[in-house]
Design brief:
Layout lengths: L1 H18 L1 H8 L4 H25 L6 H16 L2 H11 L13 H16 L2 H8 L1 H15 L10 H8 L6 H16 L4 H26 L7 H5 L6
Bound molecules: the ligand Cc1ncc(C[n+]2csc(CCO)c2C)c(N)n1.
């Protein structure tokens, strides 16, 4: 099955995500404030783009059930995904509002551009492959942290882990499985070339998830950010 192939090939990248100091820090209950702030600034901005990508899928869908599914996911990102951000803000002792005006860092820019590239191909499989590592890796992180005994009552990140752990219909676990199922269906009518193209989108997005943790941990912004972003806030 296509989904098994994707998970198998991406596995070393997922393992590297589990080993990343930011993710390990979530498990151990400590991440530097500067890393948490950089993450929320970039993620707030990233999720706004993610919503637009979800919206851009709707015109290429053929049935209402799928339209409902993607529309509900937009609602979920807008209204529920803010919870994990609040957890980071509370720990870093900053207001969420103060972190909502960032422009994309190089890696966030690359990740967003990668997703838009998938949209431009017009292929639903490519778009789902580019999107899926986002809910997939987070759900896997939450499961791994829980399985290794890190999701404890005294961990300040407990409610962040719990958020991505939930596996009910409306939450990420359910979403991940549904997207993998859609891919398995689509792959039945795809050529080897199309399968490889879609896989490329999935594997690159998985690495870009790793890069997202990395850039937040080391606060990697544009080298010439003053020049690039100037006084006005262009993207
Ligand atoms: C860089 C980055 N990657 C993944 C997530 C997690 N996430 C974002 S939207 C969503 C639901 C998808 O419909 C999930 C699980 C994040 N916050 N930031």
């Amino acid at each position: 099955m296509f989904s098994h192939q994707l998970v198998k090939e991406a596995n070393p990248i997922l393992e590297a995500i589990f080993d990343h100091p930011f993710v390990k820090g979530i498990g151990d209950g400590h991440v530097d404030d500067a890393a948490l702030k950089f993450y929320v600034q970039q993620d707030f901005q990233y999720l706004s783009e993610f919503i637009k990508i979800y919206a851009s899928i709707i015109p290429i869908l053929k049935d209402r059930e799928n339209m409902k599914f993607f529309a509900e996911n937009i609602d979920f990102i807008l209204n529920s995904e803010i919870h994990p951000h609040h957890v980071f803000c509370d720990i870093a002792n900053v207001t969420y509002e103060s972190l909502q005006h960032a422009t994309p860092s190089p890696k966030a820019y690359l990740y967003q551009s990668h997703m838009y590239r998938a949209v431009r191909t017009g292929s639903l499989a490519n778009i789902i492959c580019a999107l899926l590592p986002c809910p997939w890796t987070y759900n896997e992180i939450a499961k791994q942290l829980t399985a290794t005994g890190k999701n404890t009552a005294d961990n300040p990140f407990k409610s962040w882990i719990d958020f991505y752990l939930t596996d009910d219909e409306d939450a990420d676990g359910g979403l991940t499985q549904k997207l993998f199922k859609m891919l398995n269906e689509l792959s039945k009518d795809m050529s080897e070339e199309e399968i490889n193209e879609a896989k490329g989108f999935f594997l690159k997005s998985t690495e870009l998830e790793w890069e997202f943790w990395e850039q937040a941990f080391y606060q990697q912004d544009w080298r010439f950010t003053e020049i690039i972003h100037g006084g006005d806030n262009h993207e």
